[in-house]
Amino acid sequence: PVLYTVSEGVCTITLNRPERLNAFNVEQHEGFIGALKEAARDPAVRCVVITGAGRGFCAGQDLADIGNQPIGQIVRRYYNTWIGLIRSLEKPVLAAVNGVAAGAGVSLALACDLVLMAESASLVQAFVNIGLVPDSGASYFLPRLIGYHKAMELALFGDKVSAAEAQALGLCNRVVPDEGFQAAVADWAGRLARGPRSMGWIKRLIGRGLERPLDEVLELEAHLQEAAAASADAREGIRAFSERRAPNFTGR
Ligand code: LHQ
């Protein structure tokens, strides 16, 4: 239920249960977790794209295939695990939201570092519609991204938010016409895959910047600047600048 490809530094992970709008069952969770671990480990992977097969991105939990584990255990063992893997992966992760995202499918997109939406895609905080609560980080990401009152509006009413509204609210970076969507994703992914090693450290820093107090973030900046400056890519970047040419980064 998960497709995995690597090409020119771009790892594409495709949720692949299109008849259920790529809703999660246990097999898809396990495939997704395995794919994220492999992308983190493989030095040939410089950035990760997460997308969905067919007309949907991800409809959250498969409500017809919840399995027999207690719900709390499913959330902890699967959803919380892959949210943690996306955030701790030291490579940029791009959500290519090709179609509707609902419930934990929205959380998945919001946990990524960049979010592109096709014009016909939409986001639904579906949890309340079935009497549940936001999970997979929705209650962390939503108020940080759009503020308390908008987060409450979305979470309490569970209405469909169009791609255009999502962009106006700050829930995605860009909206792209459907016919140009794959090209726009490939363009951003290619730029990320040609970027320097420091992109992974930038991710760690901006993430900590959201969560931690200033003195701690200042210290982490000093620490990671030391690591970055010692990297082959920074040496190449500084050399290329003085030679007035484009740098050729290798991700090391
Ligand atoms: C689905 C689903 C789906 C199964 C569409 N499951 N079949 C964590 C842990 C444990 C428990 C609970 O939850 C969680 C976290 C969560 O994610 S809770 C939230 C779960 N997700 C939802 O409640 C979303 C339910 N789906 C919808 O509201 C709509 O399907 C959306 C808005 C996503 C799309 O609407 P439409 O574009 O109108 O498509 P559709 O409703 O016709 O769906 C197409 C097919 O996909 C349909 O099957 P069918 O056999 O009739 O073609 C749906 O039954 C199926 N499907 N979502 N989550």
UniProtKB/TrEMBL annotation:
UniProtKB keywords: Isomerase
Enzyme nomenclature, EC number: 5.3.3.18
Enzyme class at the top of the EC tree: isomerase
CDD domains: crotonase-like (cd06558)
MF terms in GO: isomerase activity
InterPro entries membership: ClpP/crotonase-like_dom_sf (IPR029045), Enoyl-CoA_hyd/isom_CS (IPR018376), Enoyl-CoA_hydra/iso (IPR001753), Enoyl-CoA_hydra_C (IPR014748)
Gene3D superfamilies reported in the protein's UniProt record: 2-enoyl-CoA Hydratase, Chain A, domain 1 (3.90.226.10), Lyase 2-enoyl-coa Hydratase, Chain A, domain 2 (1.10.12.10)
Pfam families named in the record: ECH_1 (PF00378)
Highest taxon above the source species: Bacteria
Family of the protein in this entry: Belongs to the enoyl-CoA hydratase/isomerase family.
Protein name in UniProt: 2-(1,2-epoxy-1,2-dihydrophenyl)acetyl-CoA isomerase
Organism encoding this protein: Symbiobacterium terraclitae
